[in-house]
Amino acid sequence: LSGAVFDLYKKDGTKLASGLTTDAKGQIKVNDLKPGDYYFIETTAPAGYQLNNSKLNFTVEFQETTKVATVSATNAEKTGSVVLNKTDSDTGKALSGAVFDLYKKDGTKLASGLTTDAKGQIKVNDLKPGDYYFVETAAPAGYE
Predict the structure, then answer these.
(1) Would you say the C-alpha torsion 92, 132, 138, 123 has a positive or negative sign?
(2) Domain segments of the chain as ranges
(3) 52-60 long-range CB contacts below 8 Å, 24 or more apart?
(4) pLDDT tens digits, the chain, 144 residues: what are they?
(5) 5-60 has which CATH code?
(6) Which helix (H) or strand (E) holds 18?
């Protein structure tokens, strides 16, 4: 992931660098660190991802041949929710018992048999950013 921004600290909490941004390969390279213990803290997550603010510890060892210490950081994609409200077109009254399928924009079915509750609602959580649509598969009793 490119565009993640990190600060670099010594183990004792001394900030050594800030604004270190991952490149197109998702990497940050820091040269000329003396042997010792360090950590990165992510300060800005890439667009569409949640911030991972845990300490990412690593050690630079004394060595006679060059050895690169590596640290891995992961980010979870941000997710959102959708609420569908089913109402009577004349009265505006909430309608329970309507059944829907949920699809991604490309036509991939994500869920089926989603039924409106007593408030006439269906709530779907943990959707990744993108375009979606509902298709009604069964109307409530007495409705088309």
Answers:
(1) negative
(2) 5-60, 80-138
(3) 52/76, 56/6, 57/11, 60/33, 60/34, 60/35, 60/36
(4) 999 999 999 999 999 999 999 999 999 999 889 999 999 999 999 988 889 889 999 998 877 666 777 888 888 888 889 999 999 989 999 999 999 999 999 999 999 999 999 999 999 998 988 899 999 999 998 999
(5) 2.60.40.10
(6) strand 15-21
